[in-house]
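Quick one, T. Sequence first:
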Amino acid sequence: MKATPLEMSLLFDFYGETLTEKQRELFDLYYNEDLSLSEIAEHAGITRQGVRDSIKRAEHALHEMEDKLGLVARYGDTERCAEELQHEVEQLHELNAAQLHSAKADEIVSRMTALLEQLRQEA
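Structure tokens:
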């Protein structure tokens, strides 16, 4: 399955430093600056085919790193869990406000909210 530009940019954010300087430059121009292969070729002083080949090698290298390390997948899993947990915390807060009226539940909600914020800052 072909990765979307957003997925490729995320892989680049995580593993871009593993690419050569030239691959990083061409990849950035293509995915982040949205330049065409022809525009990049003119800018870099190489052929359009050379640009394409370099970008394809970079894509392959980024996918290989993800296959080995799985950092992007783990990041996505962490974000999904944090969103679900945030939803649960909000439900607990609403339940406490409407029915329980518990100071202890308020404390728990506050601690959970702080932990979620910490988790998101560290991600």
